[in-house]
Amino acid sequence: MAALLLLLSVCLLAGGVFLKDLFTAQTGDEYPTITDWKRSYQAEAEIAQALEQLQQSPDKASVISRGSSAQQQLALTFDGLADRGTMQRILDLLAKYQVKATFFVDGLQTAEDPQTVINIKTAGQRVENYTLYGMGKMEKLPVERLIKDFSQAQKIISITTGQGPNLLKCNDTQYTDQLLQAAKAAGFKSVVSSEFYLNATQITSFAAAEAFVGTLRPGSIVAVKLLRNAEPVINEQGLAAGAPAVDKQPGLKALPALTDQPETALIAAVERFLIVLNKADYATVYVEDFYQHNGAGTAKITPAVSGPAKIAALIRAQVAELFGSRTAYAAAATGDNQAREIKTIFTTEPAIAYTFGGLANETAVADVLGRLKELDIKATFFVAEPEMQKHPVVLRQIIADGHEIGIAIRPKNGETAAETGSTIRRNRQALQEQFGVETNLVKQPWGAVTAAAREAVASLECRLIGQAVNVVQSKHQDYTSADQVMAEIFGRSVHSLARGQIVHFRMDYYTNDKLIGDLAAIIKQRKVDNIAYATAFDNPASNPANDSQYRIKPVGEILSHTQLLYQYPVDPAAVPAHVSADRPGLRVDEANVLPEVFKRYIGNKDVAYGKSTLGFSKMEARRLDNSGLIHTGDNVVFLTFDDWGTDAAINKILYVLRKHKATATFFILTNNVLHNPNLLRAIAAEGHNIGNHSDQHKPMAARDPKTAGQVILQDKQEYSQELALAYKKLQAVTGDMARHSQPLLTRFFRPPTLAISKAGVEAVFAAGSEYIVSGSCSTNDYKAESVPQLVNIIKDGIYTKNGEVKKGSVVVMHMTDSAAYTAMALDILLTANEAKADADPSKFKVGRLADYLTEGYSQINRRQTLQLTAPAGQNI
Ligand SMILES: [Zn+2]
């Protein structure tokens, strides 16, 4: 068993090499950013399973190329992803004309911009799989390669949307038998081909749209290929389907081969098409609705489940293959000689970095410097060698203003690591000798970052700096107002930036010299300052002790605060055994589930027989705890926060708790957590407990609206796997964190919606959770209408009618952005509580669940647990 676990972890660690090998072997190209996302989306098990499935069955996926012609309907697909602003405009159009569409999204862009894909799903449209990066001519690839590609893409999209696509589409590819077998083995029931493509450059008038619609027939599948974001730096160069990255130089403004505002032309063409489609009385359906017409049946597709031993054997074989190969081994051994591009710094520091580049437009630079001074921002400026020579006065001014300097490089095609290295060395020397500046920061602001460049940066012990947000994009060149740019860069759903993110501004691109300065100021105001806790009675401007404001700092300064940096994912070896994900869960089956659940379930008064206790008999349900109180003699209440949110929501809660020296328990919904591990880490860094709230928020029992009865949404095994995945994510970010040598990650589980079922409870224990904690007070804070209303709800939850503390109350709140009043309500309650005398029976202290739910705690043994009190040193 131990050997198996070791092998598995070796396999996971080797994931990077595995993927790198997979991409480099076939194409000879480098996809150097893979290291950034592969950690979050390990698909080795799925790949192994699909490979095994392929050996067992030669079944092929069916091909959907059209649907029934009996009705005036057709299916519309969008293939690939454009930038978020364009995608939002497309979604708005579809809503406006009430059109259904199927979006085939590729794995890499989904990993890069998950929010866009979430937006598609939220808008009610279908999301399906467009392979890992929409590569063309895939029929030429070996079958194993296809399976790796499909499975990896499927993993990324499933994690992002919470459900696996059923359909696959390959870009410009012939569907050979081999490809169809690979698709089937990877879990797809069908692959899709389109008869018709909408060509935006041709649909320039209604007449043209009408002519195009005239060629369609009922049952047609019409595809729109989306333009890739033409900005290579943001788009992960080289990954675009059939569209080579456009390599841009600073100062070089006229770019060939880019149509004027291609996105605008596309949107206009799509709108004309939709209008004409409506006029022609075509209804639109999802491609999946055409499935039945292809005679392939309606069975729900689930990947074949095979024995864990078989999967392990396959993984072992893969690992052996990997390390048996000389090149792979060399790559693994020397994996560290390639600098990782830092886009978000893994830190818990409440800081964001601004970086700037492009000195050619001295007016714009001067304006930026003035703005930064006004805003009291210190930033990092990346300077290229010719700029040092051409603009020394400007550079001296930047340095004099106290900003940090880094080196901008642009390796030539085919340049070796040694050549790039000597450029960097020369630039460092020039900066030192002529400007008195030392730096180890290097940025390649445009073009593909090659392996040679990474190697050069690493060999000189420099850091390679990328960005999480690229403010200046090619298509915005003539935009005149910051509002125009903001809408396209952030869309509606991005409430705030996140701690550790690097935001890059290019100063030599806009026609409007003041636009970069405007953007630097507006991004701070709208996406950074709004993260701070700012109320009438406590805000960073009036209260110097209010430290809730995120600071904008140079990259190097954030990187120098090493005590706040961390390794992500956390090294499994650093995780204490008690909270290790490898530790087997409680052995609970139908025979002994009852004693355990009576002992380990802290319930809720609304969870009652016939409503949300599926599988428990009436007698059993009666014995389940419904008090929601932790048994204790202390005047203690437990604050708990569920789900997940942005920095803007969670930072406010963290500040209020810190201000009142209170520690709480955060039950994390994990499906989006790995997009912002810094924030989760920051919660634990303040001493709060971390608990599991599942990965997908599927309740253990739900009400079937048809029968009004309760149903389960996942079987026991599926549910247990989901919870284990959620726990692994929590461990990957917080597994090594402890306070007073007590781990902050806990084995506590909060049921989504608080509903429970017998099978669900068994799955919870099997997945390693030890206590199920609902609570005594459901605040419904996400729908509170005002602060006073919420304060009263919480008061009712923690005080008896006589005004005494309800000992052991567990208050259920949320950390979502919708829970807008939660932080302020708590601030008010905790401030009032602090003002009370210690002997006042209505004075409570705030506890963490881990201090009370210690080993041996039993919800049915009151006498034993009444003696438990908080350990010494606990605050309040
Ligand atoms: Zn929840």
Secondary-structure class: alpha/beta
Number of strands: 33
CATH architecture of the largest domain: Alpha-Beta Barrel
| CATH-derived topology of the largest domain | TIM Barrel
Which spans of ≥5 residues are poorly predicted at pLDDT below 50? Answer: 4-38, 229-260, 295-334, 864-876
Instruction: Give the integer mean of the pLDDT values.
Output: 84
CATH class of the largest domain: Alpha Beta
Structure annotation, total helices: 32
Protein name: Polysaccharide deacetylase family sporulation protein PdaB
Pfam family, one: Polysacc_deac_1
Domain NodB homology: 72-285, 635-842
GO molecular function: hydrolase activity, acting on carbon-nitrogen (but not peptide) bonds
Question: What does this protein structure show overall?
Answer:
By secondary structure, this protein is an alpha/beta fold. It has 3 domains: 60-234 and 258-320, Alpha-Beta Barrel (TIM Barrel), CATH 3.20.20.370; 324-564, Alpha-Beta Barrel (TIM Barrel), CATH 3.20.20.370; 587-836, TIM Barrel, CATH 3.20.20.370. Helices cover 39% and strands 13% of the residues. Strands 10, 11, 12, 13, 14, 15, 16, 17 and 18 form a 9-stranded parallel beta sheet that branches. Strands 19, 21, 22, 23, 28, 30, 31, 32 and 33 form a 9-stranded parallel beta sheet that branches. Helix 29 links the parallel strand 31 (777-778) and strand 32. Helix 4 packs across helix 9 (177-185) and helix 15 (362-375) runs parallel beside helix 21. The protein is globular, with a radius of gyration of 28 Å. Residues 642-643, 669, 693, 697, 752 line the site of zinc ion. InterPro entries: Glyco_hydro/deAcase_b/a-brl, NODB_dom, Polysacc_deacetylase_ArnD. One of its GO terms (molecular function) is hydrolase activity, acting on carbon-nitrogen (but not peptide) bonds. This is Polysaccharide deacetylase family sporulation protein PdaB.
